[in-house]
UniProtKB/TrEMBL annotation:
It comes from Malaciobacter canalis. This is DUF3164 domain-containing protein. Pfam families: DUF3164 (PF11363). It comes from the Bacteria. The lineage of its organism: Bacteria, Pseudomonadati, Campylobacterota, Epsilonproteobacteria, Campylobacterales.
Amino acid sequence: MLMAVIENGKWQDKEGNFKHPDMVRVDKQIEDELVEGLVGGALVLQGQMREFKIQAFAECYAFVDLLRKEYDMERITSKVGAVTLKSFNGTMEVQIQVAKLITFDQKLTLAKEKIDEYLTHKTENLDAEIQTLITRAFDVKNGKVDAKQIIGLKSYNITHPKWKEAMAMIDEATEIAGTKSYIRFKQRAGLKLDGPMETIVLDLAALPVEENEIQTVKDELEKSKGVTDGKK
């Protein structure tokens, strides 16, 4: 087992100091082994998912190239766009979607100032909820604004000159920094022809897990540990 960073048999603590194993509490040793084992497993899973993702993209794009050959079309060397492939009975589906990566230049700050001018002028007649949605669109998270929310401002049917000026500034501030491709896998519930199409969740954090499933595995672990302790 890897355990904590060890030098000459001593364990490294959070401050970089090395301690004799006898100075490390047993529960901390067990915790260290548990965390390193789980993180190690997560890294293995991450590598497997990355390899699968690369393979899935490659196979989908290779299929599109095969179709081009069938119709005597020249192979396009640039990235393939959106792709939707379905199983013969339609119960399984693979989708590749291409999203634009949108960034904004300094004119976005000017657009925000112009919108503030509009809000100051119209506060007494403007719905409070709409005003909140407008101001939230400019919230910065992880150093960036949400491009969808900024672009979404253009959907409001507001004809005031200051608002129109702000929307024009947003148009001028918008830049396409590139594209990002997403691949998703779907299947119909129960593989039934009329079942609803459901996305196969591959995001570990979003993967649904039932409490009773966790408890069952936990009970098995405790039972296994009991047998092991008994042998000792």
